[in-house]
Amino acid sequence: MSLKEINKIVPIILAGGTGSRLWPLSRKSFPKQFLNLLDDEFTMLQKTYKRIENLQNICRPIVVCNEEHRFIVGHQMKAIDVEPLSILLEPEGRNTTPAITVAALKALEIFKDTNVDPVLLILSSDHQIKDIHNFHMAIKNSIDIASKGNLVIFGVEPTFASTGYGYIKSENQLSNNNALPNKVDFFTEKPNKETAELFLKDKQYSWNSGMFVFKATSILDEIKSFTPEIFNNCKHCLEISKKDLDFIRLEKNSFLKCDNVSIDISVFEHTKKAFVIPLSCGWDDVGSWESIWKISKKDKKGNFVKGKTLIKNTENSYIQSDERLVVGLGLENIIIVETKDAVLVANKNSSESIKNIVSFMNEKGFIESQNHKLVFRPWGSFLSIEVGNSWQIKKIEVNPGASLSLQMHFHRSEHWVVVDGTAKVEIGNNEKIIGPNESVYIPLGTKHRLSNPTRLPLTLIEIQSGSYLGEDDIKRFEDNYGR
């Protein structure tokens, strides 16, 4: 069956990762897939769809993400004029098998009245791919074999003895010149250095890219065979899940009954239908600051610098400043990343260990391990400027035409000062318009709402005062975003 005869190819974009290996820029509240890490026009999520949007017979995507990131996904998809077929919200990450299962079931549900068994293109939202032409050719070569009921995984030719990637052994040597399918022999999880050196020399081995192609019914049949509990839990979960605005909020109890397991382990290590297609396209999973350094544009001494920086006698380093001046002197193989509330200084060769440091910070109760001072909301964002025991100062930015919820607080009062733009303020039964250098006071326990009635951004300073300042001190009465 040729590509022209395929009715639908549905991209399934997996966007549920936390991105802790790229701390402090990537954090649980705003992980790497939503960042522009490589100084171009789009975020990594946006580029994931942009690089395949011109493929013949490609559909709008199904995106699977954490419910905490639903408005980020919605906003970033809208920014590239893409309305996903569905955005599935995981109550908690359970690895790729449950995510792919619910996405495949949803794809069949979407096309149930058309007798289409869609081909699913499984993509991670945090990969870098340089050679789009070769990537497209590999996808096209995967369609014929997937259409026959087989499961395809893309294998990347190793360029060094990586201990951070899983490996695929094919039955025959792979040729990256033709990107033709080869039967999978077996999978190996992340090997030690000595084993990785052997794999590097053997043309039967490739890196596991984590990208797949198969028909929806083909993968569901295998999931049902090897992990029936996951299939049944996901099927029940989707049946009783609720639509929330533009999202599908997956039912929590059923979803969390699923084992936390990857599709590689649950299906591909057991199936007899797995084929690997070699992928030579400048692939990188952007999994560490060292990998970011490798694919970034560097000066003659191997340095990447961004932001307010000054370096002397420095080589092979990555130095980024978001806000403050960062000065580097006599450095080599160093990573420095400065944000509003944290600074990372690390040896470039130790960047794979950052995930462990983030876990240690979690144990010690450092909120900087998971949350940025800058927090995005569906109506805009807020930045925590300063916090005391009973007070807090924030900068709030409200998008044109957007409104916060009609709400009240039980433990704090608020004072708003507009610094740029025009605000509509509802306090109790009163409503007023205020502009720059004007302010209002919202007493504790009073219903209130802030809106931007204009086509220009609104910026204001909020001073909170009270016995408790947590974000959960809120009662919503009306909300445009279904919260």
What top-tier CATH class of the largest domain fits best? Alpha Beta
CATH superfamily of the largest domain: Spore Coat Polysaccharide Biosynthesis Protein SpsA, Chain A
- CATH fold-level name of the largest domain: Spore Coat Polysaccharide Biosynthesis Protein SpsA, Chain A
Strand share of the residues? 25-35%
Strand order of the largest sheet: 18-19-20-27-22-25
Radius of gyration: 25 Å
Low-pLDDT residue intervals, each spanning 5 or more residues: 1-5
**Class derived from helix and strand content:** alpha/beta
Total individual domains: 3
What characterizes the major β-sheet? 6 strands, antiparallel
Mean pLDDT, all residues: 92
Architecture of the largest domain in CATH? Alpha-Beta Complex
Number of helices: 11
What coarse outline follows from CA principal-axis ratios? Answer: globular
Number of strands: 28
End-to-end distance: 46 Å
Binned, the helix content reads 10-25%
Describe the structure.
- The chain is of the alpha/beta class.
- The protein has three domains: 3-279, Spore Coat Polysaccharide Biosynthesis Protein SpsA, Chain A (Alpha-Beta Complex), CATH 3.90.550; 289-364, no CATH class; 374-478, Sandwich (Jelly Rolls), CATH 2.60.120.
- Helices cover 23% and strands 31% of the residues.
- It contains eleven helices and 28 strands.
- The protein has helices at 44-50, 70-79, 96-110, 132-147, 193-201, 216-226, 228-240, 252-256, 263-268, 289-295, 354-364, and strands at residues 9-15, 62-66, 86-90, 119-124, 151-156, 167-170, 182-188, 205-215, 242-244, 247-249, 274-279, 304-306, 309-312, 318-321, 326-329, 334-338, 343-347, 374-377, 380-387, 391-398, 406-408, 412-420, 423-427, 430-434, 439-442, 448-451, 458-466, 475-478.
- The strands form six sheets. It has a six-stranded antiparallel β-sheet, with no helix packed on it.
- Strand 23 and strand 24 (430-434) form a beta hairpin.
- Helix 3 (96-110) crosses helix 6 and helix 3 crosses helix 7 (228-240).
- The longest helix is centred in the N-terminal third of the chain and has 16 residues, at 132-147.
- It is globular.
- The relative contact order is 0.11.
